[in-house]
Amino acid sequence: xxxxxxxxxxxxxxxxxxxxxxxxxxxxxxxxxxxxxxxxxxxxxxxxxxxxxxxxxxxxxxxxxxxxxxxxxxxxxxxxxxxxxxxxxxxxxxxxxxxxxxxxxxxxxxxxx
Amino acid sequence: xxxxxxxxxxxxxxxxxxxxxxxxxxxxxxxxxxxxxxxxxxxxxxxxxxxxxxxxxxxxxxxxxxxxxxxxxxxxxxxxxxxxxxxxxxxxxxxxxxxxxxxxxxxxxxxx
Lengths: 113, 112
Fold this sequence. Notes:
The structure holds two protein chains of two kinds. Chain A is mainly β.
């Protein structure tokens, strides 16, 4: 089973709201990722967790705050977002970080109003 | 800087009309090349990993090949359900960690 689940599927939030995106995998993978994808563009890496520790932050604004409570769960906390943050947010996982294929979840479609 | 270029940007085929998608790359030390399929509004679906020139992998109507400068995704006798955006990504260099450099994708449409 190569399933990564994400909730919610859709999220509409105002610029003053606080919300969280959730991601879960039960494949025993020790690397998890957050990506942002705009329409007709490839995914852009935001964060990488390896063995539950943040290993890569691609200079993402602090209004995005990742959290990895355990090896199966990954959260992305959102606060004071801007309309340009509207996008498809994808979670992915891989066995480990190096040279292992990443399996993506279905994504959360985020709209900031 | 690592670069990945996919061509064509868009491709329309008739059902049964075989063709190839191209992914050319300029990287410092290729470590792995990945092909993904993405349907609209969904996450990318992993297809293949290729590690070294000369390597080939097949899955149903798809076959991926790798040379020192490019990879091809051959689609044999495509069906309408093969319509999707196909993404190529590379992992390169000793310091890349888990970063993937993606191409812009090829949007494939297969007409019945």
